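ARCHIVE CARD
Drawer: 12
Card no.: 0347
Subject: one protein chain, sequence and derived structure
Cross-reference: see card 0346
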Amino acid sequence: MDEIHLISDGDGLAVIGNPPDVERFLVSEGLSSKDLGLQRLNSVVSAGAAVTQAGSEIAINSGRWVELTSESAQLVKKYGLRENSRTGLSTGVVKGHKGQIKGFVEFIKGPRSVLTNPAILAGAATIMAQVAMQQTMDEITDYLASIDEKVDDVLRAQKDAVVARIIGVGFVVEEAMTIREARGRVDEVTWSKVQAAPATIAETQAYVLRQLDALAEKMERKTAISDLAKTTQEAESMVREWLAVLARCFQLQDAIAVLELDRVLDSSPEELDGHRLGLRAARQDRLEHISRSTEHLVARMNAAAGAANAKVLRHPTKSPAVVRSSNHVVAGIYDFHGRLGIESGHQSAQVRRWVDAAAEVREKALETGAKGVDAAKGLSHEALDRVSTVKGKLSSGIAERVRRRREDDEEG
């Protein structure tokens, strides 16, 4: 009988077992995965028969990490994983016969060295957290490339020293990550280089969020379409740059957390669970701060688009420009949200064309005229003719006024 150990931390699912069994299980469930790197735990296994045995168990097992999407999350329910309130982890074991993929269906109760050894379980959960954060870091790298922003160029263009300092911090953190990759651990010397970095990163992030809040407040004060057109156009490039800086800050914060967990794993493994949960809570707080500021800006951009659509007849050129700029900003924010794992929705405001608005006015006028005709059924043919004439003059008069207003706006 073969066993597969499952561990979920809410962000990912670890699948642990003999390599062939793990592979069959993942194929049977149609899941893509990446190596979890459980061999790193062997370095923290110290003397002691029980611990050594647990270490040997890890050494012969394969660990794969699956991102917890709506599809993979069904496995947690499917196999009835049980949550530990202290660690926040959901664990379980499924069992099947070798070579029989569909045999992995039974939830097994009872002691298992991997899942019941606190040190090994805490180490596996720590590595899962690191893999999840590194995936977000990769997403941010792709995001910055997709918007064609060189973050260092954006930072250097900023006159504020608070933002400029993040460049040096980035160099230090990247150096530490390179050393970690080469050595497989974070020693005291490496950690000492980055200990002061979180304060600078947090200061920069707070500064950027204040800039986004200030922009939202500025949008709120603008009511004239000409002012909105100018402000939303400026916001397109401005928000793009601030989001790039904000993404870089979040990326560096995740890198620091990865290094920090490695340091705790190396120096105080008994504190891993508490430290991992603390970092997780702090990370969630950062996401909520970012979400509040950016959603506030989204609300102001959508309000500007709504105001512009309502005045499209009087401003046939500037109103659509406001909507387009607003949509670009909102789309950029939600793309940014997706890379950081912030859940949000996006529905672009439709640009209300001047012709559509004019047609709507004309149709309403015709409808009003038609109702007048219906009400006058008892009148003589001569009276009906007069109503028709009035209706025609009314429609043509409205169309003429609309045409003149459009010409005046275009000239202005």
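Annotation on reverse: Residues 46-55, 101-111, 368-406, 408-412 have pLDDT under 50 and may be disordered. DSSP finds 14 helices and seven strands in the chain.
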